[in-house]
Specification:
Elements lengths: L10 E2 L1 H8 L3 H7 L15 E4 L2 E5 H12 L5
Antiparallel strand pairs: 1-3, 2-3
Length: about 70
């Protein structure tokens, strides 16, 4: 039995993350930088998927979005 697309866990590359959360590349990287005033410890950390490639877990991004919609603040 095939899984439905909603239950499929995937990696999201930067363009997909940018589109999904409506933030720029620099804003996304600042959220992961502890030295940035825009640092958000709740923002998902990307994982290395290749020699020169990173991606974010779709589940982690979806959870972060849900936490923001529920009013949680970093």
């Amino acid at each position: 039995m095939a899984q439905s697309p909603r239950n499929t866990k995937v990696f999201l590359r930067l363009p997909a993350v940018k589109q999904k959360i409506s933030l720029s590349k620099s804003a996304i990287y600042q959220k992961n930088d502890p030295d940035s005033k825009y640092y958000d410890p709740s923002f998902p950390v990307p994982v290395k998927i290749g020699a020169r490639a990173i991606a974010w877990s779709s589940d982690a991004i979806d959870s972060w979005i849900a936490s923001k919609l529920n009013g949680e603040v970093a």
